[in-house]
Amino acid sequence: MRVAARLTIPERHPAFSGHFPGMPILPGVVLLDETLRALEGQAGLSRTHWRIGTAKFLKPVHPGEQLQVQHEPLANGSIRFSIVSEGALVASGTLSPVPAEGQPAKARSAEPKPRARGAAWVDIPERGSPHLLSAGVFIATRLGRRIARLGLPLVVAYFVAVDARSRRASRAFLARTLGRKPRLRDTYRHLYAFASTLLDRLYLLHGRDELFALTTEGEAVMRAIHARGAGAFLLGAHLGSFEMLGTVGRRNPGLRVAMAMYDHQAGRLATVFRDNKPGPTEIISLGKVDSMLKIHACLDEGKFVGMLADRTIGEAPAQLVNFLGTPTLFPSGPMRLAAALGRPVIFMAALYRGGNRYHAVFRQLADFSQVSRAERETAVREAIERFAGMLEQHCRSDPYNWFNFYDFWQDTPAHGSAAAG
């Protein structure tokens, strides 16, 4: 690629206001707009004839940061671009030509297919009709967990037979963690653990904690932070049961927990569960206008806010770290939010151990209340690396608890080995 333009975002740019408090970061959409302006001026492009085809953000842009915008033409008529800051890749993507008025739709097929990991899991359709899901919830709530579990083997066998995507994803992951070639029974066991935690989600979201035998490790870490009267972040992954977090909070008097998640993270099944009956666990929907305000309010009230931090979403900033032997993108937004608000961060995983048994693990990742502003960037990067390391440890110890049934590594960038945050 060749350098097309040098770009500096002014410190007083209005986009920095409120994004984020105490740690200003340029929104991705603004960075893309400025990139188009730069290419329009230097490469003779017209923004009326180009649009963003794909985009991946790897490093946040701070006020006054100097950037280089590079680009090269592709054979299909698109343009690949990259944005670099001091030798580190900030963002990359493609510009796709907008078809002229009246141009046949077939011409649009020349656009490169997006490979963003966020799109990979968000766009996977859920199986099962809402009516069948509602019927299943009705049976589970009326007949109880023991009777409802009798149907799990048949349901899991069906999905093992018809869901090729999940089979492939399960085999690919288990090959990394079992130390041997996974067999069909491993895939069945993997999906059975997933189905079990989905069923248990129904009871957990409605406070039926008495149904489960829960052991914990590191719970004293939470109690110590709670004793200080300060809120904290609990960062988990699609590993085991995220909803078991509410049970841990309810069994500790005065320790209040809220779970923050995107609507597509909850999924249709969780929506049916919650609509069936209001539950005791506070849920904060992310991506809303007031989401950050609600999180901030919960923390100020001394609550713990749980978030999932293993899947990248759209244009959200991400950091490249080694995970299960491959450089992998992990979202940096949750950790940066914790740093901006000066809060402690705890790793959390509630691992399913069969039957009604779960084991919850809590380990401190970082305490940003003790980190100066000058040290934040380094502290955030190191905390994300620790998160990935802890996650890998529990993926190896409890491999059937991994519930990312898509190609988790498909969007690994082909750029240098250094992590980008």
Tally of distinct domains: 2
List low-confidence stretches. Answer: 105-126, 413-421
* Approximate helicity band: 25-40%
Judged by helices, strands and strand pairing, the structural class is: alpha/beta
Rg on CA atoms, Å: 23 Å
Roughly what is the average pLDDT, rounded to an integer?
80
- Major sheet description: 7 strands, mixed
Which range does the strand content fall in? 15-25%
Distance between the termini: 22 Å
Which sequence of SSEs, written as H and E, runs from N to C?
EHEEEEHHHHHHEHEHEHEHEEEHEEH
Describe the overall structure.
- With 421 residues, the protein is an alpha/beta fold.
- The protein has 2 domains: 2-113, Thiol Ester Dehydrase, Chain A, CATH 3.10.129.10; 130-401, no CATH class.
- The chain is built from 13 helices and 14 strands.
- It has helices at 28-43, 117-122, 130-143, 145-149, 152-162, 164-177, 184-204, 219-227, 244-250, 263-276, 291-300, 333-341, 376-397; strands spanning 2-8, 50-57, 66-73, 79-85, 88-97, 213-217, 232-236, 257-261, 282-285, 304-308, 318-323, 326-331, 344-352, 357-367.
- A 7-stranded mixed β-sheet has the order 6-14-13-7-10-8-9, with helices on both faces. A 5-stranded antiparallel β-sheet has the order 1-3-4-5-2, with helices on one face. The protein has a two-stranded antiparallel sheet with strand order 11-12.
- Helix 3 packs across helix 10 (263-276), helix 6 (164-177) packs across helix 7 (184-204) and helix 12 (333-341) packs across helix 13 (376-397).
- It is globular, with a radius of gyration of 23 Å.
- The protein starts with a strand and ends in a 24-residue tail after the last helix.
